[in-house]
Amino acid sequence: MVEKLLWPLDYYRLDSLLTNRNVLERHMQQIIELMEIGAIGIFAAYTLVLYNQVRRRYYLYLGLMSFFIFLRATLVDDGSMIFFTFFPDVPLEMGRKIEYFSSYSGAPLSVLFCYSLYPFPAIRRFVNIFLIVCGLLMLFVLATPYSIFYHTLGINTILILFSYVLMYSVLIRAVKQRKVGSIYVLTGTVLCFLFVIAELLKIGGVISVDAGPNLVNSGFIIFIFFQSIALSEIFGHSFRENQELNKNLEKRVEEKTAELSRASLLRDTLIRIVSHDIRGPMSNLKSVISLVREDQIDVDQAKEFMGNIDKGVDHTIQMLDELMEWGHAASENKRIDQEELTIREIIESIAESQRPNIESKSLDFTLTGDMEARCLFDRNAFKVVMRNLISNAIKFTEKGGQVGVDVRNRTDDVLIEVRDSGIGIPDKMKANLFEMQKDNKRVGTANEKSSGVGLFICKDLVTQNGGSLEVIDNPNGKGTVFRFTLKSTHLASA
C-alpha cells in the first residue's frame, strides 16, 4: 500500500528531472554553438588581416569562407539565431536572403581556396565553369524573394557535392606531388565533408539526429584546424625559401660588387699605365724622330737614343702582355682554363727569353728540383707569373749575383721558389707588396724600369687558379725568395 502511494510521487519527480535535464542540455548546446561561432568569427578576422599583410589569395578565400560560415551560423533555424539579437530591425526575409547567400558562397570559395593553394591548369576550365554557375545562383538569391529562392536548395546540394569533387581532384594531385601542406588540407576537407553530408541528410529528413550543434559548424571547425596546420607549414616553407633566397642574393651582390671592384681596378690601372708607362716611351720616340728630321742629331746619337727607347718599348710590350692577360682574367666572362702543364717546358722557355738580361749582368742562373713535375694551371697565367718573378729577380740582382728557380713536388701541391741574391725588399714595402701601390714602383740595379703592378697581377692570377703567393727573405743570406703553390695533377685525379 505504501509503495502504491509513493509511485505517483516518484513518477512526477522523474519527469521533473528529465525536463530539467533537457533544459540543461539545451543550454549546453547553445554554449557550444556560441563557442563554435566565436571561433569561426575570430579565425575569419585573423585570416583576412593576414591577407592584408602578405597578399596571398588563399588567405583571402579562406577568410571570406570563414566569414560567410560565421554569418550563416548566426541565422540558421536550429541555432540560436543571435543575428537578430544584434539586428532586431532586419526583416526575417532579409535574414533568410543573407543566410542562403552565405550558405551558397561556401562551395565556390572552398574551390578557390584549394585551387589557389595548388593550381593545376588541367582542371582550370572546370573550375571556371563551376564558379560561373555558383555566381549565377548567388545572384538569383539576391534578385528573387524567399518564396522562390527557397526551392534552390537541391541545386546548392548538387553544387556542394561537385565542389568536393573539384577539391579532391586538386588535393589528391597535390598529395601525389608532395606539395607542402597538401596532406593536412586533404584531411581537413574529408572530415568536413562527412559533417556536411550528415547535415544535408538531417535537413532532408533522411536521417534522424537529436537536436544539437549545427553539424556544418562542427565540421568547419575541424576543417580550419587542419588548414591552420597546413598554412603554418606553407608559411614556414616560404620563410625558409626566403631566407635561402636572401642568402643567394647577398652572395650574388657580393660577387657583383667584387666584379665591379675588379673592373674599376682594371680601368684605373690601365689609365695609370697608359698615362705614364706607355706615354713616356712614345714621347721619347717622338722626340728622337723630331730631332732626326730637324738634323739636330747625327746617326750615331740617334742609334744611342733608339737603343734606350728600344729597351723601354720592350718593357712596355711585356707590361701590356701582362695587363692584357690579367684584364682578360679580371673580366666577368673569363673562364680560367686550367690544364695539365709540364713545369720544365714553360720555365725553360722563359729563362731563354731572359737570357740577354742574364748575360748582361753575368748572373748565375740555375734550375733545380723536380722540373718534370706537372701541375694544373692556366697556361697564359702561368707564363705571366713566372716571367714576372724571374724578370724581377734578374732586375733587382747586382752583376755577378745568383738567380734560381727550385721546384718541389709535394704531397698536396707543387711548390715553386724563385730565389735571388739581390738587394732585397725594404720592410716598408712588404706590407703592400702585392697591392696596387705607387710606392712599389722602383728601378732595378741597372736602372731597369718597373711598373709597380707586376706583383699585384701575379698575386691575382695565382689566387684565381687556386694557389697562394708569398715573399720571404732569402734564408741563405742576401736577397729575396718568392714562393707560390700550384695544384698537383695527382691530387686532382685522386
Which structural traits does this protein have?
2 domains, 494 residues, Heat Shock Protein 90, single chain, rod-shaped, alpha+beta, 16 helices
Q: What report would you give on this structure?
A:
The protein has 494 residues and is an alpha+beta fold. It folds into two domains: 22-250; 336-494, Histidine kinase-like ATPase, C-terminal domain (Heat Shock Protein 90), CATH 3.30.565. The chain is 68% helix and 9% strand. The protein contains 16 helices and seven strands. Strands 1, 2, 3, 4, 5, 6 and 7 form a seven-stranded mixed sheet that branches. Strand 4 and strand 5 (413-420) form a beta hairpin. Helix 2 (57-73) runs antiparallel to helix 4 (92-117) and helix 13 runs antiparallel to helix 15. The longest helix has 79 residues, at 215-293. The radius of gyration is 45 Å and the shape is rod-shaped. The termini are far apart. Residues 1-9 have low confidence and may be disordered.
